[in-house]
Amino acid sequence: MDWKKSSLLAANLLILAGCGIYSFRGNLPPHINSIAIATVVNQTSEFAVTDAASELVTDLFVDENVLRVTDEDRADSNLQITISRVTDRPATYTAGETVEEWRIDIVAQVIWYDLSRNRPLFEKSFSGFGFYPPGGDIGSDNIDNDNDGSVDEGDEFGDPREFALRVAIQKISQDILNEVVSTW
Ligand SMILES: [Ca+2]
Ligand SMILES: [Ca+2]
């Protein structure tokens, strides 16, 4: 390929990439290009939720690449996540009145903050839930543990409650991302 052809190709690729970024960004405020995920604040006694929230929210924002994920010194905005509630309650009982399925609910207060103009872009409460059996193998418990419409497929495994907790946080992460994209 000669020089002219390859630079033409590069230009086309740039245009394509440009369109992709444009449509992805939707109505995001134009002066916001990056986001930092601030240290997750946990007001509950559920220790596992801090790391899970930080990991899953960061992964989703990096994967979706709507805004550049960076550290707080260099970011235009940050996401301040406070886990305010984690509760477990029985969801279904067997005929013998023992708990067949538990439900875990997680509530998070989230502020998306504009660091360049020092004001919140949104301040909202998000919630997610998951179901888990009292014990046993979630890969064969007849419960759709990750709420994806298929029961007991290959990606339902591990500690039942921890899995349900991550499912709940994944839902919250997705809702936060959707809210960021639709803001303004
Ligand atoms: Ca499933
Ligand atoms: Ca299952």
Describe it.
There is one protein chain. The chain is of the alpha/beta class and 184 residues long. It has a single domain, classed as Double Stranded RNA Binding Domain (2-Layer Sandwich). It is 34% helix and 30% strand. The protein has helices at 3-25, 48-64, 160-182, and strands at residues 34-37, 41-42, 68-69, 77-93, 99-114, 119-132. Strands 1, 2, 3, 4, 5 and 6 form a 6-stranded mixed sheet that branches. It is elongated and about 60 Å long. Mean pLDDT is 88; it is low at 15-23. One calcium ion is lined by residues 138, 141, 143, 145, 151-152, 156.
Key structural traits:
elongated, Double Stranded RNA Binding Domain, 6 strands, single chain, 184 residues, 34% helix, binds calcium ion, six-stranded mixed beta sheet, alpha/beta
Summarize the structure.
The protein is α/β, with parallel strands linked by helices. Helix content is 34%, strand content 30%.
Order of helices and strands: HEEHEEEEH
Name given to the CATH homologous superfamily: Lipoprotein like domain
- The coarse silhouette is elongated
What radius of gyration results from the CA coordinates? 21 Å
Whole-number count of domains: 1
Helix content: 25-40%
Number of distinct helices = 3
Whole-number average pLDDT? 88
At the first level of CATH, the class is Alpha Beta
Number of strands: 6
**Class from secondary-structure proportions:** alpha/beta
Which band does the percent of strand residues land in?
25-35%
Give the uncertain stretches in residue-range form. Answer: 15-23
The name of the CATH architecture is 2-Layer Sandwich
Distance between the termini: 45 Å
Sheet with the most strands?
6 strands, mixed
Query: Which fold name corresponds to the CATH topology?
Result: Double Stranded RNA Binding Domain
Ligand types? calcium ion
